[in-house]
Structure of DUF3159 domain-containing protein:
Amino acid sequence: MTPPPPHHREPGDDAGEEPTASELLGAALGAAARRAGLDPDSDAPTGRVIWQVIGGWRGILESVLPLLAFVVIYTATHELLWALGISVGVAALFTVVRVATKSPPVAALSGLVAAVIAAGLPLFTGNAADQFVVGFVTNIAYGAAFLISAVVRWPLIGVISGFLMEDGLQWRQDAHKRRVFFWLSIAWAALFLARLAVQLPFYWSGDIAALGTLKIVMGIPFFAALLAGTWLVVRRLYPRSRTDAEPPAE
């Protein structure tokens, strides 16, 4: 078994200490990032890595089509029940396809759950714009988490990157890394809060077509662009050594 690199620190390694909450959180987030496709040991170009993280064309369609169906149907007919039913039906169809093709159904299932939850509020209130409320709450939660973590000097990007790159919390001893992770976390907070700032006026005015279009445009494209930039910066902070990057000579 290959020993971990010298800078690697597993949670609770020091003299049998219990892992702290930040270590447990970082380890969980780092592992989740690896499962999503952010593998620091991979030689794949950044574009391919990000494409894998968002799930390729299937992931894009699973994310966009349920919302697009809702916007198009409601704008054309103003029939809320039909629009919500078709939106949830499209999400359910993607889940069935994943199960039938024996591919991991987690992404489609999460999309289906999100579609069902998002449909619940407008069914209760009768206001079509309330279909977007769950997205607003999600953006508030993520934006606040990234912003607060940066303000209290525990930027989430640093916590995730440290364990993803097998650095644990050692990055906190490096002023340059702390500064970079602070601004990266601020950038992620800005993304989520910008969505709110741009979309909420259209929610209040009840402009479903504009609101849906903005949500799609500010969704995967903005997410993928910022993720690519973050990945490039993190890889630059943790360059692979020559011995890691190249196989030994025969």
